[in-house]
Specification:
Layout (H helix, E strand, L loop, with lengths): L1 H5 L3 E5 L14 H13 L6 E6 L13 E3 L7 H19 L3 E4 L12 E5 L3 H4 L6 H17 L2 E4 L2 H11 L6 E3 L13 H11 L5 E5 L8 H9 L7 E5 L7 H9 L6 E5 L3 H10 L2 E4 L8 H8 L4 E4 L4 H5 L4 E3 L4 H13 L1 H15 L4 H21 L1
Helix pairs in contact: 2-15, 7-10, 8-9, 8-13, 11-14
C-alpha cells in the first residue's frame, strides 16, 4: 500500500463526477475537482493521495496522482449513488485510507475513516422547484446527514458556509471556507486572435455573453426579457452552455419575443474554447438567482470582460467592486445595467481593470494549499484521540 511504503497518511478523493464526456457535467464541480487534483499533484511531501474514478472517468496528463478506477459505470446518478453507498466503504477499507474527501455534497453513510465534504451550494434546499425530484430528494436528505457526520465541511464561499450552518445545522467551527481559483489561461487575448475567432464562428461584433448550464436557477428567462428591451438592434445575446434541465422554456421565450435571429445558443463550450468566447463578448451577464460561488463571473473578470451579475447570495462576494450588481428580480435594473455596459466606453474600461485585479486574488494554488491544511488537521485530530 502507498501509505505503508512511504508512511504518509492516505487521502482518498472521490472524483466520480469526472465522467469524461463533454457536457454540462464538465462545468462547475468538475472544474473544481480537476484543478484541485492538478495542484495536489504538485506537492505530495506530507500526504499520499488516491483518486477514485468511475469506469469512464479520465484525468489529464498533468494529474499525476495514483488512480483507482471502478469497473462499474457511474455516469448515471443512480449508479453513482449505488457505488458511493455500497462499494466505496469497502474500497476505503481495502486502501486503508486515513481520510476521504467527498468532493460533491455526499459521502458514504458508513465509512471506515473520517470524511471531508465539499458543499458547492444548497440551491436544492433553497429552490427545490428548480430540480428534478429524484436529485432533489437524494441531495436534500443525504447532504445534511453527510455534513453533520463529517469531520469537516469545505464551503466554497462565506455565503455557502452560512447556509451550511443555517440549513444543515453544522456547527460553524467545523465549516471551512475555501474559495475557488481561476486558471491563468483566462486572460485578455490579442485583438487579432479575437477577430479571427469571431470570423470563424460567424459572431457579431456586439454581443452579451452568458456562460453556464441552461437551467432555471440561472435566471435566463429574466435575461432574455431584459435583452429584448435594449435600445440596440445591432446587439446579440449568446447563451453558451450545455442543456441541463427545464430549459425548453428558454427556446419558447426567444420564439415568443421574435428574437430567433439575435439570441444564439452555441451549446456546450469546451474548456479550451471558453476563453475565446469571453474575450469576444462586449459584456458578460450572470443574473443567477442563487450561487454557491459563481465561477463564470470570476472567469469573465479574469478575461477583462465588463460584467453584470446578481446582488445576492455569493455573487457580490466573488465580484467585489469589479462588476455591476443588480437585484435578480429587477428587470428594469438589469436592462439599465446592460445598456450601460454596451454604451459607456469609460465604464467598460474601468470595469476591465478592476476585474483583472479582482480575479488575481483567486488562485487554485491557494485552494489546494488550504484544502491540504484541512486534510492534515483532520488526520492529526483523529490520531490525537
Amino acid at each position: 500500500m502507498a501509505n505503508e511504503a512511504t508512511h504518509h497518511p492516505l487521502v482518498a478523493i472521490n472524483a466520480h463526477l469526472l465522467a469524461g464526456e463533454a457536457s454540462y457535467r464538465s462545468a462547475g464541480i468538475a472544474v473544481y475537482i480537476l484543478n484541485l487534483l492538478r495542484h495536489l499533484s504538485a506537492d505530495r511531501d506530507a500526504l499520499d493521495y488516491r483518486v477514485l474514478l468511475g469506469q469512464q472517468g479520465r484525468v489529464p496528463d498533468d494529474v499525476t496522482l495514483p488512480v483507482t478506477q471502478s469497473r462499474m459505470t457511474t455516469r448515471h446518478p443512480v449508479l453513482r449513488v449505488l457505488w458511493e453507498q455500497a462499494r466505496l466503504p469497502g474500497l476505503l477499507q481495502h486502501l486503508r485510507a486515513d481520510l476521504l474527501h467527498a468532493t460533491a455534497f455526499v459521502g458514504p453513510w458508513r465509512a471506515p475513516c473520517p470524511q471531508v465534504i465539499t458543499v458547492h451550494d444548497l440551491s436544492f434546499l433553497r429552490h427545490p422547484e428548480f430540480f428534478r425530484q429524484g436529485n432533489r430528494r437524494y441531495l436534500g436528505m443525504m447532504t445534511g446527514i453527510a455534513c453533520r457526520r463529517a469531520a469537516a465541511v469545505i464551503a466554497v464561499s462565506q455565503f455557502t458556509a452560512s447556509e451550511v450552518t443555517a440549513l444543515l445545522g453544522v456547527p460553524a467551527e467545523r465549516v471551512h471556507v475555501v474559495y475557488h481559483g481561476i486558471d491563468p489561461r483566462y486572460r485578455p487575448l490579442p485583438q487579432d486572435v479575437i477577430a479571427q475567432f469571431r470570423a470563424d464562428k460567424g459572431l457579431p461584433e456586439r454581443f452579451i455573453l452568458h456562460m453556464g448550464t441552461l437551467e432555471p436557477r440561472k435566471n435566463l428567462l429574466h435575461l432574455i426579457r431584459a435583452f429584448a428591451r435594449l435600445r440596440d438592434p445591432e446587439s446579440y445575446l449568446v447563451l453558451a452552455g450545455g442543456c441541463g434541465w427545464f430549459y425548453a422554456a428558454l427556446f419558447a421565450e426567444v420564439e415568443r419575443l421574435g428574437l430567433e435571429d439575435r439570441v444564439l445558443f452555441p451549446g456546450f463550450v469546451p474548456a479550451d474554447e471558453q476563453i475565446l468566447w469571453y474575450n469576444s463578448a462586449r459584456a458578460f451577464a450572470y443574473p443567477s438567482l442563487y450561487e454557491g460561488f459563481g465561477l463564470p463571473v470570476l472567469e469573465a473578470l479574469a478575461c477583462g470582460v465588463p460584467t453584470v451579475t446578481s446582488a445576492t447570495t455569493s455573487l457580490p462576494e466573488v465580484a467585489g467592486n469589479a462588476a455591476l450588481t443588480v437585484p435578480p428580480d429587477d428587470e428594469d435594473a438589469l436592462v439599465a445595467a446592460l445598456q450601460r455596459l454596451l454604451d459607456d466606453a469609460a465604464l467598460r474600461e474601468t470595469l476591465r481593470h478592476s476585474g483583472l485585479a479582482r480575479a488575481a486574488q483567486f488562485t487554485w494554488e491557494a485552494t489546494a494549499e488550504q484544502t491540504v491544511q484541512i486534510y492534515q488537521q483532520m488526520i492529526a485530530s483523529r490520531r490525537a484521540r
